Amino acid sequence: MERAPDLDQVTAADVSVNEARLVETLLWLCRIPSPTGDEGMICDALVERLSGVHLAAPVRRYGHSLVVPVTRSSAGRDSRAKPKIALVGHTDVVKTSHDGPVRVEGDRLYGPGSSDMKSGLALMLELAEHHADVLTNVDLTLVFYAREEGPFLENELGTVLPADEELRGVDLAVCMEPSDNKLSLGASGSIHAAVTFHGRTAHSARPWQGENAIHKAGTLLCDLAALSPREVTIDGLLYRTVTSATTAQGGRGRNIVPDEFSLNLNHRFSPDTSIEQAQRDIEAIVAGRASIEWRDLSPSAAPHASHPLVVKLRDAGVVAVEPKQAWTDVARFATFGVPAVNFGPGVNAQAHQRNEWTSIEKLCQGMRIVTRWLRSANAGAGSA
């Protein structure tokens, strides 16, 4: 593994070389197509590229996902002193439209997944390939996984974590979702539920002969419109529980009173709430007015703001600390008792956008923050 100087302690020329190499790695990643469900090509490319890196142990492959043991402590007296850290990133991207090739224009690097989240992957590769000196203080594992942007049950991290005992033993996992170099703590849980109202068909000229399922949904829709967010503060961070009707489907024809009408309810709940309690909360909202079919059930995750390694990351120069009012894979780690946080150099507002781009300045800033953190992380070993 090539040794490189710390980005905080080098000349302007050295910084330029390191940053140019980081940009080239991101361009390389963005040029490899990897839409959700078709990650085989990028997985193979990563395996080939990592074959040239001195690793602590062979890469472990699960489907189109990889667990990469970069550094490991020796068997000496201090072998337990180094914190075990995983940097985690998904290789798939949402299919979006692009009006030009992968390219750099000023501070912007355009390409599919450039922000979400190949910028994070580029940072991970840069560490493994060129920053052995930074990694002497930690046992570092990289995880490249597939199908994050699809349904919860198809996400390959859900396969990797149960299968990889060593990964489940890390002290902290950092999911490198685009966050503009902000430290985003916790994750809101998410439930999708099909709520179906039942009625009886009739000709619309004689509606009294039937029972209109769409009309029966009216009181629930009014209740949802009047529902205020439930706010809770955890570790000094404000989270909100909210419920929204996001899709609606029903009706047999323009002149038929419908006998069935379904809403998709998306319930986003704060980290102090379990899946089971969130289901009970939805049942209380529906109040027996319709049948409920549970669809995606995604757990929440605690923020871990006081975890020693999280404090070290915070103090390494992150732009801000904020609650994550959305679901991410930190919640998958939470189900195995592994503390996890969100931090990434990608531009959050560019995720899933047409002509997606990311900021080169933020990419390089993220690299400096992570190298600074990893140098100091040994003083924060252990768990909260």
The largest sheet has its strands arranged as 1-2-6-3-7-17
Shape: elongated
Text of the CATH class of the largest domain: Alpha Beta
Helical content class: 25-40%
Instruction: Report the CATH architecture of the largest domain.
Output: 3-Layer(aba) Sandwich
Would you identify the regions where 5 or more consecutive residues have pLDDT less than 50? 1-12, 380-384
CATH H level, superfamily name of the largest domain: Zn peptidases
Query: Which structural class is indicated by helix and strand composition?
Result: alpha+beta
Distance between the first and last residues' Cα: 32 Å
- Using DSSP, what is the number of strands? 18
Mean pLDDT: 92
Number of helices: 10
Q: How is the CATH topology of the largest domain named?
A: Aminopeptidase
Tally of domains: 2
Commentary on this structure:
The protein is built from ten helices and 18 strands. The chain has about 375 residues and is of the alpha+beta class. The protein folds into two domains: about 260 residues, Zn peptidases (Aminopeptidase), CATH 3.40.630.10; about 110 residues, 2-Layer Sandwich (Alpha-Beta Plaits). Strands 1-2-6-3-7-17 form a six-stranded mixed β-sheet. Strands 11-12-14-9-15 form a five-stranded antiparallel β-sheet. The protein is elongated, with a radius of gyration of 24 Å.
